[in-house]
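Pilot study result, target chain (565 residues):
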Amino acid sequence: MTATTLQSTRPPVTPQPLARPAALARIVSVTGSQAVAVLEPQPEPRSPAAAQEVRVHVGSLIRIATPGSTVIGSVTGLSVPTASMGETTGELRLVELDLVGEVTREGDGGTRQFKRGITNLPSLGDALTLATPDELGLVYAPGGRSAITIGHLCQNERIPARVAMDDLLGKHFAVVGTTGSGKSCAVTCILQQVLVEHQHAHILVLDMHNEYSTAFGTFAECINPANLYLPFWLMNLDEIVEVLVNIGEYRDAEIAILYDAILSAKRRYSEGGAMRLTGTVRKAVDGQAVVGLDTPTPFRLSDVIAHVDEQLGKLERTQNSIPLRRLKSRIEQLTMDPRYAFMFGGITVQDDMSEVLGRLFRVPANGKPITVLDLSAVPSEILNVVISVICRMTFDIGVWSQGQLPITLVCEEAHRYAPHQSADVFQSTRRELAKIAKEGRKYGISLGLVSQRPSEIDPTILSQCNTMFAMRLTTEADQKVCFAAASDGAMNLLELLPSLGDCEAVVIGQGVPLPMRIRFQELEEGRMPRSQSARFSSAWRREAMSAQGLDKIVERWRLNKRDNT
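Predicted structure:
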């Protein structure tokens, strides 16, 4: 992808001079920030387009002119208290409103601007009309802030949907929606627009289904298990215990042995002079290198096995050797299994932590500001540890850089490795993600959660996402999560979640001036995620695969080689 491929599609907000429309309704009740208006009889529209111009629906923005400002309200409900079965001419039609802010002018002849809160409340009888395109632009697409355009309003497709970038990324965000609602396209759209003007970004996407490898073209560094290098010595004690120690009655004994073996292996590697080139991992105290179990310093598994063998040689016949033998067997098994080559493979061990971090977090970016980490072929029994290591390193690099390296970590299928249930699985990953969610903002670490089941995500983590893109959700439990995160003014829009179209979303939170219903912009052909459903109707009309093709699949399966073409 060239720099010109990802061009900003931000449409200009051009105020259209319009004749002052007749009043659609008049205020009959004002209570605090709520108001009620009665719809006025309207002449028959001359065309469908004219009918659309005066159509009032839930979520519409309306304007009420007052002596000091123009009050902006959002339609939260429509009703006819005493509906008739026949003629509707004399029916009382009510419009319920939330008064959300007002448009004022700075000084005499100054520019108009929108601000939250109401200084000049409307009075009984004040006229109500739909907000003009100019006013919609002031509310939803204000100038003066670093913002990205990701689509347009469903209320008026001429008005761009913009989100404040610093609020979106600096305070975490979530994209939630049922399968097929367009989550992957929404995430791609958001990140592509970020990259338009920020080609020195540092974005890491945890891709669980190999969907995003083609979405960003040459802007992305695509990593999969075939070319991933994540050395085992980057793991802390909890992570390495989860990988190397078997579950059972000897678990505690194995952990104690592993504790001593790793310390011994780290000392041997350090004392061997292999770390002279990187003084950042050494601290001389009486001529010895001080390292801890969680210090990310290299060591050799051969030294761990040597320590285990040494302990086996010291055992007397009456002592139990099972924990030592089990630990040794597990280490040898992992080093010989090609599925784990990205972590336990390699003949030599080198202190190349800077290179590993630089590739993952794009330091320097070198024209590729985003990393797509394909985890679809990572063995399930080690997936938790891989994600835990990535999340922990993301947080730690933010801490040790003192916030000078802002990083965004996007977690696809977040409910899989940050589940709500209190099961023992994925405990380390949940802990590291929770740390980013609660403390990452202080160190420039941004979190993006993507999930089709928000109700299954750890609420401690999800509650820290201050901007939410809620796409179509049909289950009550998932909808409740969105309602819990919304202010009262967004409730009426969230009621629309079950009926949203593909690539539509209700956006709430600090990244937008007001809750809004948007449609994400269409992606370029060839720059879309691989998230389309299989076309059974066409695929089953012909022979899709030969026996030789199946043989190739089995070969790739056994060798853990994924075809990314």
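One observation from the pilot: The CA atoms of residues 374 and 418 lie 18 Å apart. A full batch analysis is planned for the follow-on phase.
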